[in-house]
Write a structure and sequence with these properties.
With about 120 residues, the chain is mainly β. It has strands at about 1-5, 10, 20-25, 30-40, 45-50, 55-60, 65-70, 75-80, 90-100, 105-110, 115. About 0% of the residues lie in helices and about 60% in strands. The strands form 2 sheets. Strands 2, 4, 5, 6, 9, 10 and 11 form a 7-stranded mixed sheet that branches. A 4-stranded antiparallel sheet has the order 1-3-8-7, with no helix packed on it. Strand 4 (about 30-40) and strand 5 form a beta hairpin.
């Protein structure tokens, strides 16, 4: 089994910054995609940013230029640096990873971390 544990959420004022972390552990042979999704109240879960094992990234248009995703393959950890935060960034942020356990591929989710942008 694979576990994803997120940290770094919280309350921040508009224009502020936060850094989210997500560490994967358990039966891991390799990790392909790692990414962040978010879900605001009453809305569908949406992709925020994704990074593949080779380092290529893609971002939602709403966060381009403000958020940066990165990963530390040695630590099986993905980060999301969020700058110039806006109230509309308020949501529960979920880590996601495509992991090979040595036997098969599986998609895993973290438990979510709340990000609130408010004055």
């Amino acid at each position: 089994q694979v576990q994803l544990v997120e940290s770094g959420g919280g309350l921040v004022q508009p224009g502020g910054s936060l850094r989210l972390s997500c560490a994967a552990s358990g039966s891991i042979f390799s990790i392909n995609n790692m990414g962040w999704f978010r879900q605001a109240p009453g809305k569908q879960r949406e992709l925020v940013a994704r990074i593949i094992s080779g380092g290529s990234t893609n971002y939602a248009d709403s966060v381009k230029g403000r958020f940066t995703i990165s990963r530390d393959n040695a630590k099986n950890t993905v980060y999301l640096q969020m700058n110039s935060l806006k109230p509309e960034d308020t949501a529960v942020y979920y880590c996601n990873a495509l992991v090979h356990s040595g036997q098969s591929w599986g998609t895993y989710w973290g438990q979510g971390t709340q990000v609130t942008v408010s004055s």
